[in-house]
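Researcher: We plan to redesign the surface later, but first we want a full-length starting point. Tokens attached.
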């Protein structure tokens, strides 16, 4: 695929962060929509919340759905959540989490030593 569609212009070695962000958002939306379509087409039940394995076949779900379920086969999609450290709390100006980093529209430089 042409990198310029994603916001990367190689001849001048420039980056259009707004276009990069738009491209990222479009890819994420397409993936989410596709996954939701596959789930619906295969008649898979989705429970939203935090789960705890109570036994090899039983899960207790707390959150948007508060239920206990049992099944022979279970898929656990854990997702992710940034971890905030007390010594370096996210201020979203100098210290970011992975989500806020992807929303930046200005140049970001990592210094590593």
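Model: Full-length starting sequence:
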């Amino acid at each position: 695929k042409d990198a310029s569609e994603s916001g990367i212009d190689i001849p001048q070695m420039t980056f259009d962060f707004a276009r990069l962000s738009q491209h990222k958002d479009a890819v994420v939306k397409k993936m989410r929509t596709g996954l939701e379509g596959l789930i619906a087409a295969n008649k898979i039940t989705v429970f939203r919340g935090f789960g705890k394995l109570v036994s090899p076949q039983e899960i207790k779900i707390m959150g948007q759905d508060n239920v206990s379920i049992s099944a022979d086969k279970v898929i656990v999609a854990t997702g992710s959540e940034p971890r905030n450290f007390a010594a370096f709390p996210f201020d979203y100006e100098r210290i970011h989490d992975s989500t806020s980093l992807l929303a930046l529209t200005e140049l970001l430089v990592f210094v590593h030593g």
